[in-house]
Design goal:
Chain lengths: 173, 173
Amino acid sequence: MIAQLQQATPLRALELAPVQPATIGEREQIREVARRAGVFNAIELDTVDELLDAYYADADRSGYYFLSYRDGDRVLGFAAWGPRSLSERGYDLYWIATRPEAQRRGVARALLEAIETRVRERGGGWIVIETSDTPTYAAARGFYERCGYARALFLPDFYRAGDGLMAFAKQVG
Amino acid sequence: MIAQLQQATPLRALELAPVQPATIGEREQIREVARRAGVFNAIELDTVDELLDAYYADADRSGYYFLSYRDGDRVLGFAAWGPRSLSERGYDLYWIATRPEAQRRGVARALLEAIETRVRERGGGWIVIETSDTPTYAAARGFYERCGYARALFLPDFYRAGDGLMAFAKQVG
């Protein structure tokens, strides 16, 4: 039994330990991380708020799941993801953000890998990330590609003139 | 003034006349058309129902708009569309269906063109249609392509094994 347990909890589980479902006590920190990320506009920040409401009220019903990356009591980053409606195997990453002072420490990668693990555990097959083609999101796009996401869709000027929709996707199971 | 009016209501308006916002009295016929289309599963039919609820309660708030194609009191087809959230120029076609006995009479094309006109009038730029890659939807995919929609995304096995996500898109403004 011990051997089986060891097999079931490899190093990976320890690596992912800072990433956990967001608690209600982390709400203000998550809002702060979103605000300080510096890429989201006011409407997008309001949307993060609405999704947090839905998640805290009833995560399974809302279909929005928030994970936070913690260093002690401090939230260094968060991500929101969920199943695509009418799909058994498709999932979306809705938001991912890291505190500016915690960049380049693997926070976002740990969050994304934790989501991939969860999607796989639920029998999911794809994660889709819809983002923008503007320079503001260049670092994010590079990050997604380094994490194995491939550009799957590009519709220029989709959000507004000069701000196109670019979707990345990765088959995780 | 008469000259201006004539200019503002060209033949196109007459051609589109059978297509109008769905009325509450058409609800049962719309459900029937969806059911008889033969391509939607039970969960998808429930979703059509939910969107109808939202549309009749408050269309602008819901973000779902239903159009019906009428021949007298008879609804020959319907379509549901709406703005993509967080986007100023992106719109989705959610559902489109024609009665089996009214196929090949231009009903779906008239519905789709009416949506394109409305999207353009609202300053929209893109219409996205997410559909399936299964044989069941082969006729629908061919129809979208004949209407000028290009394949923009393909994720195999996205909905479930053997049932992939295929998205078509058209720049309409």
